[in-house]
Amino acid sequence: MMFEHYSKNKKTLFFISISFLFIGIAFFSWQKFFESESPISCTAEARLCPDGSYVGRVLPNCDFAECPPAENFKNPYMEKAIADYLLTQNDFSWKTKEGSYNFCTIKNLDPEKELFPLYIWAHCGEYVMAEGELENLSGSSGPLKIDYPNELSYYDLQKFSYEAPRDGSYYSEDIKKIFPEKLWDKIFNFNRTDIIKQNEAKAKDEIP
């Protein structure tokens, strides 16, 4: 009987040990699971995208999110050529201060249209860096009709031409003469905030 009692105690201790082992494993697994699920926050930074929108940092590595796909110009060389052309024109590039820099940013008002004439909104500004801060000295913003011979070649800035609406009471009348009717509302209600921010971002990046 003593041997039988001893054996029963031994079996009981064995099952208790096994139970504690499984409880320990379960607790360790539960703790690791919730540690891995604990919230992680990224720094509250933002990056300006080419379309004027902003993206922040995202998990798991806190990299900046991808910018939305560009819908401005399907041909980036065309976009750059038009902006460069405007900088050769006195109406869009001028100097009010020694050492200033001029930049132009353009928005395609009719992205589906691939052949000239093209209809754009242009924002051009004159900037300087003062004590590490960007200062806007002067600027011009408005809709333009851009024309160029529809030929397969490198863009020759001398072959571009533009037509712009007059100011004041002539503005509305000229919009309806120069631009197709489907663009009238877009032009009259154009929000300049994003294109101004894009031009400022370009100036900050490129002014030495």
Quick structural summary:
The protein is of the alpha+beta class and 208 residues long. The protein has helices at residues 2-36, 76-86, 171-178, 184-188, 193-206; strands at 46-48, 54-58, 63-64, 101-108, 118-130, 133-147, 161-163.
Structure description:
The protein has 208 residues and is of the alpha+beta class. It has three domains: 1-38; 39-69, no CATH class; 76-206, no CATH class. It has five helices and seven strands. The chain has helices spanning 2-36, 76-86, 171-178, 184-188, 193-206; strands at residues 46-48, 54-58, 63-64, 101-108, 118-130, 133-147, 161-163. A four-stranded antiparallel β-sheet has the order 4-5-6-7. Strands 1-2-3 form a three-stranded antiparallel β-sheet. Strand 2 and strand 3 form a beta hairpin. The longest helix is centred in the first third of the chain and has 35 residues, at 2-36. The radius of gyration is 32 Å and the shape is globular. The model is unreliable at 1-8 (pLDDT under 50).
Structural class: alpha+beta
Mean pLDDT: 83
> What is the CA–CA distance across the termini?
96 Å
Q: Please give the number of β-strands.
A: 7
Count of spatially separate domains: 3
Question: Approximately what portion of the residues adopt beta-strand conformation?
Answer: 15-25%
Write the H/E string, N to C: HEEEHEEEEHHH
Helix content: 25-40%
Enumerate the strands of the largest sheet in spatial order, edge to edge or round the barrel: 4-5-6-7
List the total number of helices.
5
Specify Rg, calculated over alpha carbons.
Answer: 32 Å
Low-confidence stretches: 1-8
Biggest β-sheet strands, sense, barrel? 4 strands, antiparallel
The global form is globular
